[in-house]
Amino acid sequence: MVPDYRKHRPWAESLSIVLQVGLTMAGCILCCFFAGRYLDRWLGGNGVLTVVLTLFGIIGGGVVSYRQIMEILADTPSGDSGNRHGSD
């Protein structure tokens, strides 16, 4: 039994977009969090750098995710209105 790719294509494309944005956000936050922990241990900052860099990660992840979403929306045809579930 082979799945019909054309039937599940809109669902798979939507899932890939959500995963891409979510993993980008999580990656930015986790990268900055662990960089802050490392710097706090190395410099003895009592968690200050961890908090500051985590906040930078949240802000940076939000900016990158916003840019990804705007790029995806710019790629959709204007007559499509974001509705990808039309009959093929």
Write structural notes for this entry.
The chain is an all-alpha fold. The chain has a domain at 22-75. It contains two helices and no strands. The longest helix has 39 residues, at 5-43. The two termini are 22 Å apart. The relative contact order is 0.13.
Please outline the helices and strands:
Layout: H1 5-43, H2 48-75
Helix pairs in contact: 1-2
Report the uncertain regions. Answer: none
Biggest beta-sheet profile: none
Strand content: under 5%
Q: Give a count of the beta strands, DSSP E runs of length 2 or more.
A: 0
Helical amount: over 70%
Supply Rg. Answer: 19 Å
Q: Provide the residue-averaged pLDDT.
A: 86
* Structural class estimated from helices and strands: mainly alpha
Structural features:
88 residues, mainly alpha, 2 helices
Describe the structure in brief.
The protein has helices at residues 5-43, 48-75.
